[in-house]
Structures are given as C-alpha cells and as structure tokens.
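USER:
Make up one protein:

ASSISTANT:
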Amino acid sequence: MSRPSWTPPPRPACAPASCCGPETARWLRPGTRPPAIFLPSRKNSACRVARRPRQLGKALHGFVAARPLLRAFLWGLASALALPPLHLLPVLLFSVPAFLRLIGEAKSWRRLLLTGWLFGFGLNLAGLYWITEPILTEAATFWWLVPFAAPLLAAAIAFYSVIPALAAWRLRPGLGRLLVFSGAWVFSNLLQQFAFTGFPWNLWGADWTIPGPLGDVFLQPAALIGVHGLTLLTVLMAGLPTLRGRGFAALLAMLALWAGFGLWRLQMPVKPTGIELALVQPDFPVPGSYTRDALEARWQRLLAMSRAGLSAGADAIIWPESASPWLLDRDTAARQQLAAVTGQTPVLAGSLRMLGSDDFRNALVVTEGPGPAVATYDKWKLVPFGEYTPHWIPVKITPGSGFTPGPGPRTLHVPGLPPFGPLICYEDVFSAEAVDERDRPDWLVTITDDAWFGNSAGPRQHFADARLRAVEEGLPLARDANSGVSAVIDAFGHVDAELPLNGQGVLVAKLPGKLPKTWYSRLGLRAPAGLAAAAILAGLLLCL
C-alpha cells in the first residue's frame, strides 16, 4: 500500500527558507508540537536563535511576576535612576505606582515590612554604591569591607522606607492613600536627617537639580518649602498616574504651576557685589603622601595657584577642605610664606587645627597677611567612620585619630568681605541647618574634598545639594572642592561658573548678590513638616 502524499504547511514567519526543509517537515504536521530545540540539522539554528529570546523573556517575566518581594527590590533599584547625576525623573512615574501596588497586595505585616524594606534597600544600594570608593584607597588594609560597606549602609537606611508603607497599607487606593503615602515619605526623610548620626542623602527632592535652565526653573519652590517639600511634590506627582485620566490631568497642571512659579521667581532683581573670588582646585591625590617633601610640594602648588588667582584680579582666595599641609593658625612661618604671595588679600583656607594633644578640628582658617588668623570655623557635622567612629564600631577607614566637633553654624566677619557662613564637606547636605539665623550671612562658602569618591555619582550628588542650599537660603554660594566640582552658584541655584570634576585649575568669578530672606529660611523644617502633616490629614479624611 502506497504512503499518502503530504505537503508541509507554510513555514513560520521567523524561519528563513533554509530552516524548515524536508528533514524538519515531520515536526510541522497538523496536530504535532515542535520540540524546544531542533537537532536534525544545522539549518535549524536560525529558528532556535529566533525563539530563545522570546522564551527567555517570558520565563524571566514570569519569574519576577511571581515574586513580589523581588519586584519591590527591582523597583527600588530603578528609582535610583531619578537621582543625580542621571535625573531620569519619568522612572518615578512607574516605580512609585508599582510600590503602592505592592503595598496594597501585602497580605501580612511581615510581607509589608519586607516590601517596604526591600524597596528602600534597592533605592539606596544603587544610590550609594560609591560609598566604597574611600575604602578602595586603603584596600590593602580594608579590602574585606568592600563587599559589605554599601549593602550595610543601604540596609540600615532602608528601614525608613517602611514608614510610608505602613502608613498606606490598609487604605483603599485613590487620592487619599497617595496623600498619606507622600506625607509619610517626607516624615521618613526628616527622621533620616536627624536619627542616629543623620544622613539625609538620596532625597527625591534633589532629583530636580537638573543641569541647565530646566533645573533652575524647577528648583525655585525650594525657597518656600525646601528639599523635603520638593520631595513631597515629587512623590505626589509620581503617584498621580494611579488615578487614571484625572491623575494625568492633575500631573500636567502641577507641572505647569511649578514651572510658572519658577519662571516668575527667576525674574527677581539681584544687586551685584563687585567682589571677585578665586577658587583653587589643586586636585591633590588621596590619601596622598605625608612625607616632608610631599607636603612641601603640596604647599608650593597652593601658593602658585593662589598667585595665579591674584593675577586675575581676585579679592579673596579660597582653598578646599584640609588643603593646607600646615596648621595655619599656629604656623607663623607658613603664614609669612603665604603673605609673601597674597599680601593682605583674605585667604579662606581649609586647614586642620590642634587645640590640645588629643583635640583636632577640621577647620576653615582665614588669614590676612602674616599675622594671626583673623577668623576660624570648626566643622560640627562630622562624617561617621571617616572623621569619627561611634564607640561601638572598632573600625576607622581614614588615617589618623578622630576629630572633635565644633559648636555649630557660625557667621564669620572678615574685613573687605561680606559676612559669610562656612560649610565643610557634607555639612551642606543638611537642609535648614546651613546658617546661623541669629547672625545671618550674606553668602555661603563650602569647602570639601570629594576626591575620596573618585569619578562616581557621589561628588555630583554632593554638588546638587549645594545648589539646593543656595535656593533654600536665598544666598549665593562659593563651593571649592579639591578635585571638583568647584563652582560659584547664585541665590537661584544657577551655576554661574564651574571647574569640572577631576581637574586642576583656578576659577575666578564674581560673587553674586543675595536675595531677600526666603520663606524657607524663616520657617525652616516646619514648612515641609506642616505640608506633610496636612497631606496625611487630608488623605485620611478622603479615605473615610
């Protein structure tokens, strides 16, 4: 009996002409299912390659979709893309609604706590990866800390993200829940600023420090409500898409009002000061060498760069944090050498101070000529594990003994200059704690050494915080960093002039004028705290 003839069906769209020849036709008979991998011939490789990405994508999607805790972690990671220096703010339009959805899906306290913590862990792990950079400078000694530093810090900060998750858990989806969640997120950030040593980093309000005119416009509400208030608006707007059509309309309306206020405020007149500043960016390596020859070479570089600044017509010279290798308030010979170059021009120098055998200060020392220092300021917000070590931790990464904190914010009065408020290192990340309100300055000076963090996001995030402080206080800010970014920032947060990261140079620029005292400088943290409380109260009323 002869075998009935059969014609193969048309080949799949993914298959080239050489893929489905007679040797594979038997797999394509009606009612039969092709195997996962064709083996009969090398001609089938195109089909395998075309099918595998789709199969892998479906498998990966199913794997993630079935694991809500993994999704919480991944959405937290994605949210870090909105932070400086990337500023991918549209990511929050997906991550915040996804986080709210995961909160609503939690069936138990344990699942809820893990969901909130994992979201915060992902956010801070990606946002603080650069924290390992100082450890790498001492890798021979502290190599074992490299895999643990960023995860441990992120794990600790992640507990703050549990607070908004708890607040929004049992509330029905809608505007009320979103308001409660936004207000609770702000209170968690305020707690982060003050609890333990305080570390107010990775705040979503800083996402708006976009370089250029767009960032200048959207930073202006910080003069009313500060960075924490910007965070409240950011979380609220990011969650509006959960309200469907009316949510998108509200989002567009908020953005329009926000931009309108920014454009209006940027038209405020500012009276120039006429003062030229020279910001010295020496780009010293860290940790550097501490031999006598190395310290002398460091000193000579500072003198040469200061001379260049004076030649450009500077009225004052600024050195970065800990730039001076000598104790300027004690070393008469060093001050005489400096005066031989700068004369009576004020030099605002980062220098150590020693007040006793075990009392060292990270300080800003102001000199005018060879005489005693005319003013000093001691840093009071010390970096944990770097400048001091909590008594319960046996490890300190940076060399030398710990520092003693200063008394707090101060305004320095120096002949020939408007009164200014100094900030050293990460003191400028603490909102509403930048100035002495009893003796308000006319401008701010930040000196720092971000070279410890290399070419990472850390120095750029730190620079973004300096712009926010200028807007909040309505004061111009001169920022001098050892390796960058050094800049002169006006009272609107606009960068008038800057030196890029990881470079050496002298920036000579005019000091901008100040603005009238802002509402935020009057109210301080009461402004965002009051807004957050009002949002929570309104949200609870809507949920009744």
About this structure: The chain has three domains: 12-48, 69-267+525-543, 276-514.
